Amino acid sequence: MGYINLLQLKLLLNISLVVLLVNGHGTQTEAQPEFLAPLDNLTVTQGRDVSFTCVVNNLGHYRVAWIKSDSKAILAIHMHMVALNPRLSITHNGHNTWKLHISHVQLNDSGSYMCQVNTDPMRHQSGNLDVVVPPDILNENEPNTLEGGVANEGGNVQLVCQATGVPEPTVQWRRENSKDIVVRTEGREKQVVKLVEGERLVLNQVQRTDMGGYLCIASNGVPPSVSKRFDVQVNFPPQVKAGNQLVAAPVESHVMLQCIVEAFPTPLNGWHKRDGMKLYEGEKYTISEEKLNAYTWQLNLTVKNLHKGDFGPYICSSINALGKSDAMIRLQGTKRTVSTATMNKRFRERYVPATVFKLYLPPKPTTTPTPYVPSTVKQPRRKQHYGTHGKGHDSSKGANTFNRDTYIINHIQENDYLGSLVVHEGNGHGLVGMNGATMGTGNGLGGPGGTNGGGLEKPRNTQMPAPIPSRQPHWILNNKSRASAIFSHGRRTVAAF
Question: Ranges of Basic residues compositional bias (predicted)?
Fold first, then answer.
């Protein structure tokens, strides 16, 4: 009996040894979990969404957990959320990838995150989350209120701009419309710059030219940069300057008087005459005011239909809480002047007919005139005159003369010289042009220049046009102008205007 128990005990020991050997061999050959890629370090702007990705192979029966390293808080184990944060969630692709999602990231989400596998010893990997915040300018202690942004001329103004953001932003000051910033010291030295760095901008001994908008610009590399406008106001009493101290204009005309006013705060402007009578908008006066910049105005006064009583001094005045100022403009009369163009127009209206005379000539003869053949008897050579002294030649006084009327008719017909002419027919006169000047004198037709003498020269060839005694010229004047009468004297016909 004792022997059987001993055999059973040995059998049990052998079985236990086999089991231990089998279990030991299986433990040594089982694959351990491993990470295929590290966690990324992430930077995200506040309010965006972000996620960490953890890839683990050979996970087996182990589990993946997410932990916030700085607080040692367990966020999730496998697919179960532990942290009571609705912005956190877990996803798994069914194989080897786990993701931790953080929506609408806040600044307190920054820190280190750990993906951990519960082996012994524990395996893990970490990634860092940086949350950045765009710059913002605080609205506390507004420096652009009446206390901080206003000073009398010669005083000081201090502007303060506080900005927040992650990382900490830098602050710059610029002037609106790219104007220069004038930085003055107590020694009246000044420096003209385009920008000033720092949260504070101090303007010493401010002048009216320093008025306007100043921009505080905060940036930290996280878009967008932000800016804020501060308005600087400089108070000073009015200063009035007349555009012209003396203005002259003729009666029955309109004239404009101008003044330039510089003042702040906004002044009350007006016009009045020297006797104190205030002027108002109406049929006689037109009053307007134009703002040129923050502290400059242009005042306009138009006086219509001038008469003698309107001449004299006019005063433009300006007043605000700091003082009053005015300027005087003297308006005087002058003779009305007439421009050269107006004089020329009046001359033409007086001396030039509105409708011209038209000269109608008889038709050109169809017969060819017989050429003149001089006699063979040699005549003594004499100096010939061609009407340079205004003396005409009669056809009956020699063989070397020709009929003047026939020559004029033929000459005008050949050159088609028709126009608005007044004809003088008689001794030593040619045609008269539209401006009333004699266009030529002598036995010929005067040139277009209207000179006093120098008619057409006699042709130099030996063939002269033969006279046609049976045909006399008929001058027909079609007067559609405003000529009053036509007078005849001897053989001269004159049109009078």
Answer: 379-390
